[in-house]
């Protein structure tokens, strides 16, 4: 099985807009419907959004072998969104970095995704934990689906 980076056209892929457009349109319609339903949930929708964001940070980081405490991630996200987190101790700099990365990526979602951004994000996530910070990997990486990822 070949990896995406082993493809001859990597990283200059092409696509057939006629085939892609219906899929993108469908995804956008589903996203719009989802957003409308979330708006109707009020406070519960905000809590679900926060949980989804925390799940994203925790799951994405786990792929790198980096595990965060859920309460640190939640409070870091809340702080980045300008919401007070009084009485919650979040001294985990790595959780702060990951939350910052997520919030920044969401704010810049309409900007063109560039290699520089990807490598910067990777360096933020792996700060102090990985010798390949800010560089493309040269070794194979295996992402496997586990039944339940246990958080330490």
Strand elements, count: 0
Largest sheet: none
Low-confidence stretches: none
Question: How many alpha or pi helices?
Answer: 5
Report helical residue fraction. 40-55%
Separation, N- and C-terminal Cα atoms: 32 Å
Class inferred from helices and paired strands: mainly alpha
Q: Quick check: average pLDDT?
A: 81
> How large is the radius of gyration?
18 Å
Strand content: under 5%
Shape: globular
Reading the helices and strands in chain order gives HHHHH
Explain this structure.
The relative contact order is 0.09. α2 (43-63) packs across α3 (70-80) and α3 (70-80) packs across α4. The chain contains 5 helices and no strands. The protein has helices at 17-39, 43-63, 70-80, 93-107, 115-125. The mean pLDDT is 81. 53% of the residues lie in helices and 0% in strands. The two termini are 32 Å apart. It has a domain at 46-125. By secondary structure, it is mainly alpha-helical.
Which descriptors apply to this entry?
152 residues, mainly alpha, 5 helices, 0% strand, globular
